[in-house]
Design brief:
By secondary structure, this protein is α/β, with parallel strands linked by helices. Helix content is 35%, strand content 26%. It has helices at residues 26-37, 39-46, 78-81, 99-108, 118-135, 151-158, 173-185, 189-199, 207-210, 213-227, 246-255, 316-338, 377-387, 417-428; strands spanning 15-22, 48-56, 73-74, 88-91, 112-115, 139-140, 164-170, 229-230, 237-238, 257-268, 271-282, 294-301, 305-312, 351-352, 362-363, 365-372, 392-397, 405-412, 415-416, 433-442. The strands form four sheets. Strands 7, 9, 10, 11, 12, 13, 16, 17, 18 and 20 form a ten-stranded mixed beta sheet that branches. It has a six-stranded parallel beta sheet with strand order 3-2-1-4-5-6, sandwiched between helices. Helix 4 (99-108) runs parallel beside helix 5 (118-135). It starts with 14 loop residues before the first strand and ends in a 7-residue tail after the last strand. Bound molecules: L-homoserine. The site of L-homoserine has 10 residues, from helix 7.
């Protein structure tokens, strides 16, 4: 921190915090723009200015706008990591390496860190928190979950006194965009994915989005903030949206539901129940109204009840805004530290946890059974369900004459996962069944009103 001398209260009275950026891609561009465009607001709220001293880039020659002057750019990470004047290192490169090594280096030099890197925080958070704590600095990662939505801050601060029962997030904008476009405009999955990629919020590898891996990483971080539990994203039951067909969207619509990819975390006596699944959500449910690439996180907590955090989950400006807000929070830590107060611990305890098996879960189900229309087939399907004590709530079928293919849509009552799996396996073994049954879960009612 150095005096800058141009503050609103006269020469020499405005404090300044010097920062360095690692990476200057889309989010880096958003960070630079927000620091410049909102400079006056930031200075007013912080009582200090934030100055970017160095920006690590891969290519010095790439054209950049005026927010990233050439004089600030470097290809040498040491110019950021080893500069004693830089108090906060902002990692925006993404991926595990070299981000991990550079962040550890920054922490070891007692620099605070801000990152938007969900993969890194979800898989290596423990070692990073330990190093930060050892060095008396902080690592902030608000932008890693749901982009601009201040959900981590809400969990850490706004709801700090509450007991969280369940979190349900629409935390992948690409999935929500695709499902929403398929249901509202009848777009095909492939076209909707292309649009999402063109809009720039899909990951470089879209299988991370549509396969559910991105949402699982975010859910792991939400679980850490909400329950103090660290769960490996790879241990979370995760299902992508690629099996959802236009037929399922239309059938769900007729039954009064919309498809949403939901990331859920619940505390249970047997351990945390975590999952990422495409689910049917009743049209009147608040999460059903989340459109396009928007994200939303519904928190159910004892004292507060239901609270919804909704907004843009990706894009340079929303994500950049979350990064700069983290920088501002760390500036405040720095002022407190320089005045002799240590920064608060990020987490006093982190408990490693394994999610409980999903076979113990119970929910209503949507089944689409593909059969040939022959006498008795309905009875045979119903017998399989009955044998495994799966009760039918609704049944729809569109018949096209004897011997024709039929998609039989069944909505089950609430039933344990293991029983419905066994019933479906038996159904799929019937001679008249022409392909694997499509099964999706139906969203459980909210626990708190
Ligand atoms: N690819 C992510 C999404 C954005 O589609 O939501 C970054 O987290």
């Amino acid at each position: 921190m150095t005096p800058r001398g141009t503050g609103p209260y006269g020469a020499g009275d405005m404090r300044e915090v010097v920062i360095g950026l690692l990476g200057a891609g889309n989010v880096g561009g958003g960070v630079a723009r927000i620091l410049q465009e909102n400079q006056a607001d930031i200075e007013r709220r912080l009582g200090a200015s934030v100055r970017v001293k160095k920006i690590l880039v891969r290519n010095l020659e790439r054209t950049r706008d005026a927010t990233m002057p050439r004089a600030l750019l470097t290809t040498d990470p040491r110019e950021v990591l080893e500069d004693p004047e830089i108090r906060i290192v902002v990692e925006l490169m993404g991926g595990i390496e070299p981000a991990l090594t550079m962040i550890l280096e920054a922490l070891s030099r007692s620099k605070h860190v801000v990152t938007a890197n969900k993969a890194l925080m979800a898989t290596h958070g423990k070692v990073l928190f330990a190093e930060a704590q050892r060095r008396g600095v902080a690592i902030n990662f608000e932008a890693a979950v749901a982009g601009g939505i201040p959900i981590l801050r809400a969990l850490r601060e706004g709801l700090a006194s509450d007991r969280i029962e369940r979190i349900t997030g629409i935390v992948n904008g690409t999935c929500n965009y695709i499902l929403d476009a398929m249901s509202r405009t009848g777009a095909t999955y492939a076209d909707a994915l292309k649009d999402a990629q063109a809009a720039g919020f899909a990951e470089a590898d879209p299988t991370l989005d549509v396969g559910g891996g991105d949402a699982a990483q975010k859910l792991s971080l939400l679980t850490l903030l909400a329950f103090g539990l660290r769960v490996d994203p790879a241990a979370i039951a995760t299902e992508g949206i690629t099996r959802v067909r236009s037929f399922d969207i239309a059938a769900a619509d007729a039954l009064g539901y919309v498809f949403k990819s939901l990331a859920e975390a619940r505390q249970t006596p047997e351990g945390p129940a975590l999952s990422v699944h495409p689910m049917l959500v009743p049209k009147e449910h608040i999460l059903a109204t989340v459109r396009g690439s928007y994200n939303a996180v519904l928190v159910e907590s004892r004292a507060m009840g239901r609270s919804l955090y909704h907004g843009r989950g990706a894009g340079p400006m929303p994500t950049g805004m979350a990064v700069v807000s983290d920088i501002i929070e760390l500036c405040r830590h720095i002022f407190a530290f320089d005045a002799g107060r240590p920064p608060p611990e990020a987490f006093s305890t982190i408990v490693e946890a394994v999610p409980r098996p999903t076979s113990d879960e119970a929910h209503e189900n949507y089944l689409c059974v593909h059969v040939t229309n022959v006498p008795g087939i309905l009875g045979r399907v119903a017998s399989c369900l009955g044998r495994h004590e799966v009760s039918v709530k609704r049944l729809e079928q569109d018949l096209h004459g004897a011997g024709q293919a039929v998609d039989m849509v069944v909505v089950t009552e609430r039933v344990p996962e293991a029983r419905v799996r066994a019933a479906v396996a038996e159904i799929d073994g019937l001679d008249e069944v022409t392909g694997p049954t499509h099964r999706f879960r139906i969203r459980e009612p909210d626990t708190i009103e």
